[in-house]
Write a structure and sequence with these properties.
The chain has 113 residues and is an alpha+beta fold. It has helices at residues 2-14, 18-31, 34-43, 58-69, 73-80, 93-105, and strands at 47-53, 86-91, 109-112. Homodimer. Part of the ribosomal stalk of the 50S ribosomal subunit. Forms a multimeric L10(L12)X complex, where L10 forms an elongated spine to which 2 to 4 L12 dimers bind in a sequential fashion. Binds GTP-bound translation factors.
């Protein structure tokens, strides 16, 4: 019976115009509080990368930090010598993954928050 009901609903939806469909989607979101869930997912897309260990390729790490942050060489060196420094923040998942791969490739250990 459930399958029949779902199929009937889908059939009715397929007969809606785009404007009616858009209105239906907004009403469904409101009824089931889906907008809040989407906002929570968007908040999870803000990642920050912290340096936990510089590894054994310090010079390569300094150069990479310079490239990633647009800091000078001295500022990059000073940054990695701090305890658990923030490297980048407000990153989406793809940017975060890309930067983490680069940092790990030069021997660094990072933490993502």
């Amino acid at each position: 019976m459930e399958k029949l009901l779902v199929n009937d609903i889908l059939e009715l939806i397929s007969k809606l115009t785009l404007i009616e469909l858009s209105d239906l989607i907004l009403k469904i979101e409101k009824k089931f509080n889906l907008e809040c869930n989407i906002e929570k997912q968007e908040k999870k897309n803000n990642f920050s990368i912290f340096l936990k260990d510089i590894g054994d390729k310090k010079i390569n790490l300094i150069k990479l930090i310079k490239e990633l942050t647009n800091l000078s060489l001295k500022e990059s060196k000073d940054l990695i010598e701090k305890k658990n420094p923030l490297i980048k923040n407000n990153l989406n998942k793809e940017e975060c993954d890309s930067i983490v791969k680069k940092l790990v490739s030069v021997g660094a250990k990072v933490e993502i928050k």
